[in-house]
Amino acid sequence: MGSFFSFIETEINSKSAILTDLIGNDENGNFSTVKSMMRHEMDSGLLKKSGYVSGCRTLLRLHRGLDFIRQFLKHVYELRSDEGTSSVCMKVYSKTLGNFHPWLIRQGAYLAMYTLPSRAALLNRVNYKYILTNVYALI
C-alpha cells in the first residue's frame, strides 16, 4: 500500500503490543478496564515516571490512529473509482493525526501520501468486496 500505510500499520501493531503486554503482566487488575488503568497510572505517579510507557497515552494514540483509518475509509468509499486517494488521505491526516505530529513528521507523511493509488487500484489490492459491503460497519 505504500510507505505511509506501512508506517500506520507498524504504529498500530506496536501500540497493540504495548497494551497486550500491560494487560498480560497485570496481576492486580490495574489494566482490566480503561478506568482502572487511568486510576492506577495517575495514583501511582507512573505518568510522570521517566521511561515508563503509559497505557493511557498508548491507548489514546491507538485511538487516534484508528480514527484516521475510519475517516479515510469513509472518504475513500465516497470517491469515484478513477479518483486518487492521496488528496483524501492528506485531508483526513491534517484533521486527525497531523494535529499531533511535529512539522517534520507531517511533511514526511504528506510526501509519502503522494504515492497512494487511485480508489480502484487501492480496492484491487485489498479484499474490496468485503470493504464495499462492510465499510459502514467500520465507520
Automatic annotation (TrEMBL):
Pfam name, any one: GLTP
Protein origin, superkingdom: Eukaryota
Name of the protein described by the UniProt record: Glycolipid transfer protein domain-containing protein
Residues covered by the Glycolipid transfer protein domain: 1-127
InterPro entries for the chain: GLTP_sf, Glycolipid_transfer_prot_dom
Signal sequence residues: none
Classification via PANTHER family: GLYCOLIPID TRANSFER PROTEIN DOMAIN-CONTAINING PROTEIN (PTHR10219:SF43), GLYCOLIPID TRANSFER PROTEIN-RELATED (PTHR10219)
